Amino acid sequence: VDGKVQIPVVVNVLYRTTAENISLAQIQSQIDVLNKDFNAANSDFNSVPALFSGVKANVGISFVLDQVIRKSTTKTSWGTTDAMKKTTSGGLAPTSPTTKLNLWICTIGGGTLGYAQFPGGSSSTDGVAIDSKYLGTTGTATYPYNLGRTATHEVGHWMNLRHIWGDATCGSDLVSDTPTHNTANYGVPAYPHYSTCSGTPVEMTMNYMDYTDDRGMYMFSNGQKSRMAALFVSGGSRASFGI
Ligand code: ARG
Ligand code: ZN
Ligand code: CA
Predict the structure, then answer these.
(1) Would you state the pLDDT for residue 243?
(2) pTM of the model
């Protein structure tokens, strides 16, 4: 997979206000962040603690902006039930979802920064929704979620990654080289932050699949990379994206 998977990205912008009709520069800033974060080229990658230097990953998947589709709407918020992905509810249907990653950029509401569909779901709703205030690094991108990491996290889900705490107290993310976390972490935890789970490991709070602020997350692990890579090989559930 290393360097061989290049994902075309279709960006669907649904706007009511001029602010929601985000600029191409803001969209491109997000593509740039995805390319850095998935290729160990992010400037904070060298902040990964020595404890995790053996497992920090260069995922080796790249992204290229394919097209931007814009639609004016009267909706003030879109929620998390895929309304933005359906023309019947005033949204935009995905473009070529088996060969392109579709992003929907709109106001989601309810405090949700973004949400993703895992592999194996309906292609008619496949992709990732990101609130326009948390996309990219410029324009309307809003602190502390103004470094494009919401999309990095959501694309992680789209590539089959679970939350690092396994969505349960001391739950499993099905990845063996990430420590067991107590629960979600927020803000930017001081290092080292100890888990109270079995063995009291140091938590990998700087992993993209935790819930910290954007500046607090800057790595995937090799185990997470393996889970993602498995999707794109022959027989994998995203094999249509090619290798
Ligand atoms: N689905 C999560 C939410 O909406 C995304 C969290 C992303 N975290 C971040 N630092 N950008 O809460
Ligand atoms: Zn998540
Ligand atoms: Ca784990």
Answers:
(1) 75
(2) 0.98
